[in-house]
Amino acid sequence: MFMCNSRVTGSISAGVAAVFLFANAPLPAQETPFDLHNSISIDIPSDSPIVQAGTKTGESPPRATPRGGAMVVDLHMGLSFRNVSGKPIRGVTLLVTAQEVTPGGKASVAVPSLDIAPGQVFPIRIDLRLLRPLQMGSGPLVHVSVDGVLFDNFEFYGPDRLNSRRSMTAWEMEAERDRRYFKTVLSSAGPEGLRREMLDSLNRQSERPRIDVRVSRGRATTAAAAPEVAQFAFLKLPDSPVEPMDGWAEIAGNEARAPHIQVRNRSPRSVRYVEIGWIVKDREGHEFLAGSVPAADSDMLLPPGQTGRVLQDTALRFSRNAGEPVAIASMTGFVSQVEFSDGKVWVPNRPREDARLLRLLAPSPEEQRLVDIYRNKGIGALIEELKKF
Amino acid sequence: MARHPSEASLALFAGGELGPFRKWRIERHVAACADCGREVSEFSALRSEIAAADGTPELDWKRMAGELRANIRLGLEAGACIEKEVFPIRFSPWTLAACASLVLLVAAILLERPAPRVADAKPQEAAVLEASGMGIQIKEGEQALMLLNPRARGVSVNYSAGGSAMRARYVDPDTHYVTINDVYVQ
């Protein structure tokens, strides 16, 4: 396995290392040799608090497999970075683009809930697949760059094209909230109480209702049913700085389009972003978390006491069991995130009392990580992890 | 839940290429297993994408061969007719070469006559975001960018949609870090 240990700044290419690896890997007959040279570019600015410390391709070498008139390209990269800042890092978001393959789209890989000390090296894996025509231009297929780095004091570095600052701040606030909660459980109910919490979380994760969602922009759809306007009901969270007032979306069979939600800022600070969690009930009475309705960034600056609208020009189509449509009967919304104009972020308390929310919501990234530590290393390792913070 | 079928079996199932007994067994499993159901729909989607991307037009080779033969015969008969009746003098080599070129040109036009490639004629589809058991993807027409979660499956992956993004969140079993993948449509 190849590992590049040299400190790298500026624009670099991982292709060279990957080509070296790939040249030595046996190829199945149907796979054509894939020249990775210059196929991936990793751009890290010279003032970045992280620098690339190496590249591994893992157990799966890069592959390009022709299928019909298309080419399927699989890339599995284990990138490692070094924290060259003087502060502990809590989260990193990498922007991944493939302009020739999806000119209108982009992707990101984020790693929250980190505790990376200055000088420490840490890995980030990127596993991706491209489906593209056989004939395409030369040049890098995939560009990877840093979109944001969040430090333990909530300072932020990066171009923030994907609003990673807000996302990573919210994840870190949820992490602090959940660690605080589990520490309280540990001090009040001991290791056995903490174990029960972990088992409850595992059970909730396995029983959480799931649904397949497909998202498209705009209103042009192929839904057969005529659309009807359906009203949102709202869950009121007492400590939320923003209150949902009224809302609706167009429903056509298993598709919900163009949600509009009226909100009022009841806090003393101006609000610049609101996100509404979206619960959908099907005609059999099953509820599931369909997603969220984030405010379009440029649309909102909500002074104290003022009302504004959260809207999205998207269509969500729901299905389960490999494509069986899920007809929508009703919808419920709740405020799931608020960002103030000073960059501070509000997240809801742990929904301990609300069994409905507890059943529907996914655990926070930090709860997911702590449960994983408990599952793999036991209650002792979990207690040690909680003591680090 | 019984043991999951292999990826190869699911792929064959998606393509309708299994025998009746294996088809019945996997059909039963897929009906009860959301993960395998997602994989089957993924394979089905990939098959249709590839079929669409191939774009080779259907050619009626028999008919084309018949037309080609008829045109060559017509050219030869026309040449014979011209030689006997219209021009008392013999053709020069240049005239013969021109006639042969004409016949070749007709043949070439016939061979290249098929309809324009399907891929060129199809309107570009709008970009969509989708989740499957393998990961999340942005798809534009016949092209796609997918972020995979190859080592984390089932209940350990949380998928969500928000605005113009699709998200998959899981704990990477190698790094033990929570990994949050997003794809965005503009």
Q: What's the total helix number of chain B?
A: 6
The helix content of chain B is 40-55%
Instruction: Average the pLDDT over all residues of chain B and give the rounded result.
Output: 73
Rg from alpha-carbon coordinates of chain A? 23 Å
Low confidence ranges of chain B: 53-59, 114-123
Shape label of chain B: elongated
The end-to-end span of chain A amounts to 34 Å
Low-confidence stretches of chain A: 1-29
Structurally, the number of domains of chain A stands at 3
Shape of chain A: globular
Order of strands, widest sheet of chain B = 1-2-3
**How many DSSP H or I helices of chain A?**
5
Number of strands of chain A: 21
Measured as a percent range, the helix fraction of chain A is: 10-25%
Oligomer state equals: heterodimer
Helix/strand order of chain B, N-terminal first? HHHHHHEEEEEE
> Strand content of the residues of chain A, in percent?
35-45%
Descriptive notes:
The complex is a heterodimer of chains A (389) and B (186). Chain A is of the alpha+beta class. Chain A folds into three domains: 10-162, no CATH class; 167-208 and 367-387, no CATH class; 212-361, Immunoglobulin-like (Sandwich). Helices cover 21% and strands 41% of the residues of chain A. Chain A has five helices and 21 strands. Chain A has helices spanning 15-23, 164-207, 355-360, 365-377, 379-387, and strands at residues 10-13, 40-44, 50-56, 63-67, 70-83, 89-97, 105-111, 121-133, 142-151, 156-157, 212-217, 228-234, 242-252, 255-265, 271-282, 287-294, 307-311, 314-320, 324-325, 328-340, 345-346. In chain A, strands 11, 12, 13, 14, 15, 16, 17, 18, 19, 20 and 21 form an eleven-stranded mixed sheet that branches. In chain A, strands 1, 2, 6, 7, 9 and 10 form a six-stranded mixed sheet that branches. In chain A, strand 12 (228-234) and strand 13 (242-252) form a beta hairpin. Chain A is globular and about 50 Å long. Residues 1-29 of chain A have low confidence and may be disordered. Chain B is α+β, with helices and mostly antiparallel strands. Chain B folds into three domains: 1-56; 61-114; 124-186, no CATH class. Helices cover 49% and strands 20% of the residues of chain B. Chain B is built from six helices and six strands; from the N terminus they run ααααααββββββ. Chain B has a three-stranded antiparallel sheet. A three-stranded antiparallel sheet of chain B has the order 4-5-6, with no helix packed on it. In chain B, a hairpin with a 6-residue loop joins strand 5 (165-171) and strand 6 (178-185). In chain B, helix 1 crosses helix 3. Chain B is elongated, with a radius of gyration of 29 Å. The model of chain B is unreliable at 53-59 and 114-123 (pLDDT under 50). Chains A and B meet through strand 5, strand 7, strand 8, helix 2 and strand 11 of A and helix 3, strand 1, strand 2, strand 3 and strand 4 of B. Strand 11 of chain A pairs antiparallel with strand 1 (128-132) of chain B, so a sheet runs across the interface.
